[in-house]
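Workshop exercise sheet. Pairs work together: one partner reads the sequence aloud, the other fills in the structure field after running the prediction. Swap roles for the next sheet.
Pair: D.N. / O.F.
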Amino acid sequence: MKKLLPLFISVAFGGLSQSALADNLAEIYQQAKQNDPQLLKAAADKDAAFEAINSARSSLLPQINLSAGYKGNFMDADSHAPGAPDNHGFNTGLQLSQSIYNRSSWVNLDISEQQARQSDAAYAAAQQALIMRVSKAYFDVLKAQDDLTFVRAEKAAVGRQLEQMKQRFDVGLSAITDVYDAQAQYDSVLASEILKENALTNSYEELREITGQAHKNLDILDTKSFSASNPGKPVNDLVKG
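Structure field:
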């Protein structure tokens, strides 16, 4: 967790533009910590494992049993002999027992502690994996947005070329085959636009599955404050740092 968190924070807070209407990476990560099904399951498993330690340890502790009772015979006034006492009584008991050595209880405690350590490590791994999944889902959305913007710009350019080709054909400067070729290119770009729109929708949906919330707009990468320049250190050193 400590290996990836500094790098994640530097991107989340320093590498993104600040738009009041857009969700940034830090906000989305906080949402994911509260709602991600995988992380929530890992947390629940960890809590259950540590609770099992308490349960296993309780079998090694002294056992106290407290009992109380009341006994009484009531007689009506006609059958009650003068001067005879009523038969009433209270009784209480306290029993303390302690097993000198119960091997199975100690084995169960050892197993519970091992499972708790494993679940704790699994939870830490789930936290680290969440950083990676949130980052990937976030930047997948940004990439899908860029791809859609590019293909729409391409559609506009190809559309202008198609109109120009139709005009040239109308005045006899181009063959009909040129118009057909331009139309085919335009249709191809339209198909690409549909694919990119679907890809963007799917990217948003994958992000929603992690955060539990719908997102409509994300902060873009601020290339002025964050760049892909060589940091001067090997990647392994950055991860270890």
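Discussion prompt: Helices lie at 5-14, 25-35, 37-58, 103-170, 176-211, 235-240. What would you look at next?
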